[in-house]
Amino acid sequence: MDRVRNLLEQIQNRLEDLNKAERKVAEVILLNPQQATRFSIAALAQASKVSEPTVNRFCRSFGVSGYPELKLQLAQSLASGAAYVSRAVEADDNPEAYTQKIFGSAIASLDSACQALDPNLISRAVDLLIQARQIHFFGLGASAPVALDAQHKFFRFNLAVTAHADVLMQRMIASVAHTGELFVIISYTGRTRELVEVARIAGRTALRCWV
User: Fold this and answer.
1) Would you list the domain boundaries of the chain?
2) The Cα angle at residue 37 between residues 35 and 38, in degrees rounded to 5
3) Are 184 and 135 in contact (CB under 8 A)?
4) DSSP letter string over 100-136?
5) Minimal CA–CA distance to 11: which of 55, 47, 61?
6) CA dist 97 to 27, 101, 159, 173, Å?
7) What is the DSSP letter of 143?
8) DSSP string, 156-203
9) How does pLDDT run across 72-125, given as a tens digit for each residue?
10) Residue 2 host element (H or E)
């Protein structure tokens, strides 16, 4: 279901990786996903100025068997609200248009995150937060305000909580961690090199520390 729901997002994210012909197909779909669901393969090929075999190759590159299945998944993506991923703000948009796009994009992102959550992992995270002696929220760059916001919210539960956006301070705190300290490391990609290293330090210095 996640693959279906995220088809439009996948097309958007892979746009730059597609070859020139397949990118034309992607751009036509992203420009008006609803209209694309009504196109025949011939009509989509014509609108994209490519051949029908190119459309079929485009479908296979996204793991679908052919154009009918692609249209079905597009329709399901639209039903889930994923259409907003393609609605970039344009220079000539009026206030009504860009307001709708910005809020629509935020709503779609929240829906996507909600659908991807694993209830078992949420339950595990809650257990760790409840049992923690002290909680540290770490973030860098755009994740730093998220860490600070988390600190403010968790203060309301009368918990010992800190937030740090300086990687040197994060490393020092991780290096002297003790049992019962919980590290919540925030990263949009999960691949931020400095934060991954901080997690490794905490794991090495306090094997019973929750990371």
Assistant:
1) 2-115, 119-205
2) 70
3) yes
4) HHHHHHHHHHHHHHHHH--HHHHHHHHHHHHH-SEEE
5) 61
6) 20, 6, 43, 46
7) G
8) TTT--EEEE--HHHHHHHHHT--TTEEEEEE-SSS--HHHHHHHHHHH
9) 888 887 776 555 454 567 778 888 888 877 887 777 777 767 777 889 999 999
10) helix 2-5
Name the residue among 75, 59, 100 with its Cα closest to residue 4: 75
**CATH domain 119-205 topology:** Rossmann fold (3.40.50)
Which parts of the chain sit beneath pLDDT 70? 1-5, 80-88, 112, 205-211
- Contact predicate 132/142, CB 8 Å: no
- Report the distance separating Cα 54 and Cα 170, nearest Å: 50
Instruction: Give 2-115's CATH code, choosing from 3.10.290.30, 1.10.10.10, 1.20.1250.20, 3.40.50.10490.
Output: 1.10.10.10
pTM (2 d.p.): 0.59
